[in-house]
Write a structure and sequence with these properties.
Blueprint lengths: L7 E6 L2 H10 L4 E8 L2 E7 L6 E6 L16 E3 L3 H10 L3 E8 L6 E6 L5 E6 L3
Parallel strand pairs: 1-4, 5-8
Antiparallel strand pairs: 2-3, 3-4, 6-7, 7-8
Length: 127
């Protein structure tokens, strides 16, 4: 295979600043850098110990909320899906799947929406 690893994951938004602030404040992701160039603007986050960078950026081809939210779902590994669910419900996050055991019965999952109504998921071995 010629691909060595995944370098980054991008979410584009008409309101990238609000969305980036949401990921920083609500999910407590660590900001690595911000870029403010005429043709490239956004925020890069570090996600735990993962080498993959998470980018929230502006794109002139993106307007409004996500109209096809089930096409792409970033997943976050957490210690406890139940604890994350409780914490994020208190922060006003909308969940479309409450914590549940997976169909394969080997992990737990909960599914939520971010500000642009992108689907995000949380996974853990513990409830």
């Amino acid at each position: 295979m010629f691909i060595k690893s995944m370098e980054s994951l991008c979410i584009w938004s008409e309101n990238y600043r609000e969305l980036a602030d949401w990921y920083r404040d609500v999910l407590e992701l660590e900001v690595v850098s911000e870029l403010n160039l005429p043709e490239d603007t956004g925020v890069t986050f570090k996600v735990g110990s993962s080498p993959v960078l998470f980018w929230i950026g502006a794109h002139d081809g993106v307007k409004g909320k996500n109209q096809d939210k089930y096409r792409f779902m970033p997943g976050f590994d957490v210690d406890s899906v139940g604890k994350v669910y409780t914490k994020l419900i208190d922060r006003g996050v909308k969940f479309i799947l409450k914590p549940t055991i997976s169909p394969t019965k080997d992990y737990y999952v909960a599914t939520a929406l971010d500000l642009d109504e992108n689907v995000i998921q949380f996974f853990s071995k513990n409830p």
